[in-house]
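User: Show me sequence and structure for the first protein, then do the same for the second.

Assistant: Starting with the first protein.
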Amino acid sequence: MRLEMIAPSHRPVLLRESLEQLNVYPGATIVDCTVGMAGHAEAILERMAGRGRLIGLDRDEEALGHAGSRLGARFENFSLHHENFKNLPLILRRMEIEFLDGCLLDLGISSMQVDNPDRGFSFRHDGPLDMRMDQSTPATAADLVNNLSADRLGTILREYGEENSARAIADEIVRERRISRIRTTHQLANLVSRIRPPRRGQKLHPATKTFQALRLEVNQELGGLGQLLEEVIDLLAPAGRLVVISFHSLEDRIVKNVFRRFSGVCACFRPPELCICQCAEKGRFLSRRPMIPSAAEVDGNPRSRSAKLRVFEKMGMSQERQ
């Protein structure tokens, strides 16, 4: 499917809230760690008014191509990098950038990825069971379901998908692949539906959690996330802000715990003498209750319904004197 066929469906989630919380201003240095189709990046550059710079990262080379065309038609003060956001500290060192005024991390997958059957992220259309954000990496979702043990598959579905029928689905996958290799999204979705037939009134497709879990595993989306957040906080200039949009309870838990710890609040909920979370007050957790999309946004973009936005602000001089 051509990129131009799917680009129009893209809608950046929590756009207004992201811009307000990043506190973008002309002359700022801002990183968009998951630039995707450049919806957030375009709005950030508009607020910069030609001054400052935006550094955009993405694992998806196809998305970067679209982002470059979209931004290049209007702006010059940006650079794009085909990189995993976990490599951000290395990229900034290469660019000789010491501090950031803001950093945005949108952990969701883009409409372009979901709507393209060839990418294998969704069961709405049949396609190869791929799910790789970076297609230069070797392991696909098909590799996982056809090669991992039932024990390992069950663990992935239970931990990353919070799937109650994890072991039964894993066992069915193993039985099915003995007959023939599981190659497509519809094969897997139909298999899951046999174990978990849809109930009347059920909104989510029975395979939703299974697909979510496999996507997280294929792309190693949770591994190293906490460490990256800690590194970004260290890279923020005084009063700089880190804004994170998550779509999964496990992601949100990691974000919340890191932000708590670096605002000097215990995240392991033990007595002070037993605390093991190594609290260090480096700023303020500005969104202990996450911001969520409005009813109007969810109406216009149902994929935004599970989004949660949290904000951390680096300690500035005015805070240090208090």
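Switching to the second protein now.
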Amino acid sequence: MNIRSINEYPDLLTVAEAMEILRLGRRSVYQLIQDGTLAARKMAGKYRIPKRNLAKIIGAFDQGMCYNSTERTQMHSNE
């Protein structure tokens, strides 16, 4: 597999490019967009994601600020 640096991608990313960078499936990327975790805009009927927004997501994952709904439920039930 050829892994590219995030700097090699354009400033506006497609969903497919976001999938490559985040190493997530299409459904997961769309879920991040739908729940507002990943800011994106529709242009000509297709989502475009500013690269800086993806960098924010990566930083949030690194800091443990992003988690899926199952983990969120478990965390709140332990409180």
